Amino acid sequence: MKNSTKPFLNHPLLQTLQTKCKTLPSLHQTHTQLITTGLIHHTYPLTQLLSSTLTTSLSYTLTIFHHTPNPTTFTFNTLISSILTHHPHHTHLAFTIYNKLLSTNSINPNSFTYPSLFKACGSNFKHGLALHTHVIKFLEPYEYNDHFINASLISFYSKCGKFSVCKYLFSLVSQPDLGLWNSMLSAYKHETEPGFSINRPMEVLFLFSDMIKESKVKPNEVSFVALINACADLGAFSQGVWAHCYVVKNNLKVNRFVATALVDLYVNCGYLEFARQVFDELRKKDVFCYNAMIRGFATHGYGYKALDLFEEMVLDGLAPDDVTMVVIMCACSHVGLVDKGREFFYSMKVKYGIEPKVEHYGCLVDLLGRAGRANEAMEVVHTMPMKPNTVLWRSLLGAARTHGNLDIAEVALDQLVELEPETSGNYVLLSNVYAHLKKWEGVKRVRRLMKDHGVDKTPGTSILEIDGVYHEFLTADKTHPRSQEVYLKIDEMNRKLSEYGHKPRTMEVLFDLEDEDGEDALSYHSERLAIAFALMVSESGSPIRIIKNLRVCVDCHDYTKLVSMIYKREIIVRDRNRFHCFRDGVCSCLDYW
Questions:
Q1: Domain that holds residue 236
Q2: pLDDT tens-digit profile of 245-256?
Q3: From CA 459, how far away is CA 99, in angstroms rounded?
Q4: Number of separate domains in the chain
Q5: Do 322 and 359 touch, CB atoms closer than 8 A?
Q6: At which of 284, 314, 344 does a domain end?
Q7: How far apart, in Å, do the first and last CA atoms of the chain sit?
Q8: pLDDT tens-digit profile of 386-401?
Q9: What's the whole-model pTM score?
Q10: Which residue, 417, 85, 585, 452, is CA-closest to 429?
Q11: Which H or E run contains 586?
Q12: Hey, CA dihedral for 316, 319, 323, 327, is it positive or negative?
């Protein structure tokens, strides 16, 4: 097989193959001409034929390939890549071709063999790890350090949630190109470490800064999608606005990917009106952008607006996907639209061809549970066709806590302890049910159960941004440079709230939802420290925006409502589940959360 490309680039037969051969008879005719002219014995014409036939007949392509004497590595690479491009569900076939390459004595894989194969591995860690060993075994050192190989490896390990491995691989490259930078910037989104952490998205911001300052690489739209996503997760409004301005000023495209990231950014930072503006300015919207905006309305408690936008999406000719059904049911759940949410669930298969997944059953359970219909929610759990997951059981446990259903709470906790015995929030939820019903022996029993399992409560963390600087507070935290002033401010706030008749619900929050440190620490829950600091240093009358890793406790919710009225400040708290916008003594959730 002769491996040469240049002489054939403008050959009439190849031009015909690329532009006119759309049916099997026309491909047969051109194939015959390639044989009679002898072009079939050259690598480039052969690979063009293989690529062209793949879109029409996979079996015909494979027949040609299996009758090819002495195929080159280029032939194998082209076939593997083309199969994965045109027939992405035939990954097994691509790996079969790869195995045949390995068994061919006269040739070896090269750096172009592996990128598409790593992509085909998806998040299958076992397969990708085996493929990585092949890279080390079969490639020369200069090939192993190829940017395409490194970008593929980083992309693969990021899908597996191995962010530390991605960082290590990236550190080995002396002069990363744009593709490698983008792979690394995007890697943190797949991080699998439990719990909210400021570190990962902050690392993306630092990495992007390094990209701008230390390299000659100019960021593109993909770079900014990764950056804006990190800003969205962090609630970094100032940095996100800078990124938005950079995109516009440098004439980069605010395409559907950038727009969707911006919608998420403004939603997560509590600027719903900005999110809607970006959404409305995008001419060609896709289902992902609609999902982001519907989610925004849902988490901010605007269920009816979410429903209106869903109808607009359908009228726009876009078919809802499974994520759409999750976010629209969540929108119904957050405002108590039980019948509407049930209607979406029971019609999704018939009306939209979407088979309900465990996430949809979880939404249904949450919808019913929030509305006090815990028995009906339990019936859903017993009759669903798949095994309930931890999210679903936790929703049921949360509903039982809210409405004081001890029997269901105990059943849910038994399941959760079996599935994830080290998660503190599960025990805390049941303890709250006992506390709500004043069954203190039950509270003590849960404490003992946690001790027996070696479980510690998840510490509460609240983050806020002041003039581009991030401040992180833990419960009863005294590590902040101005902690003494913060505690004095807390004392002042407590006195003022007491004058308004506020009485801490110490017994109800003794263990409240991953409660932060019990009765003595109630005044020093993380969001209270953050609010006190913001009242001290931010401009009078400006909104206070806080991101919290846990769900807001009952007492902090009441407390913040009063603070918003007394100090005449809008306070937006993004907790683990949704947004709470406190203004003039009222929360946007209307105490339904």
A1: 200-284
A2: 999 999 999 999
A3: 50
A4: 2
A5: yes
A6: 284
A7: 69
A8: 998 888 888 888 777 7
A9: 0.79
A10: 417
A11: strand 586-587
A12: positive
